[in-house]
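anyone seen this seq b4? input:
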Amino acid sequence: MANVSIRKYKNSDYETVNFLFVEGTKEHLPAACWNTLKKPRFYFIIIVACASIFMCTSSYVLSLTSLVALLAVGWYGLYLEFHGYASRCQREDMLDIENSYMMSDNTCFWVAEIDRKVVGIVGAKPLKEADDELFLLHLSVARDCRQQRIGTKLCQTVIDFARQRGFKAVCLETANIQDAAIKLYEAVGFKKSLVAIPPFLLNQYTSFTVIYYRYDIKS
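predicted toks r here
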């Protein structure tokens, strides 16, 4: 196993950090699509739509075309959700990481390195709703460096930071499609606190849910 070191973010890390963040966000799209394809409701809509078009036109070509169009619309809708999230973060806290995370005693951003190459990232900020709880953000590990406990070390770094700063808990959110992330958080010791349905247009067909986790810090 490679020697992994965790250190605080520097401005010279920006391009690599941004790349890891965007790639980590985009890679959830296939899982979201597959999750949608497993839902009976989705197939019901497809069958009804194609059957209706065939009954009106008696055309197999138009029916198949409508099937492809519906699949394309569904994929594009999911793409817009993930792309929109990444773009929003790049306009907000990820636009200037130094200013967003490194200028306060209670916020921080870390990178994981192997042989001086940045291969993982994570950030932490206090929750706006509860200033005694720290929120873990943007955890991502390069694909070719997984299965080396890098995510675990980054999570533990945030927990240690929270403990040193006197926070009562570390909180985070993930999605039901992120199986590897869920296993990681639960292995570290995070407990599920809430499951919510995000209010985006296609969610009634995708069964996409946001899962909130909490790690209580013992005093």
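The helical segments are 14-26, 28-37, 40-57, 60-91, 97-101, 150-164, 179-188, 203-206. The domain at 4-11+97-216 is CATH 3.40.630.30 (Aminopeptidase). kinda curious what u guys think
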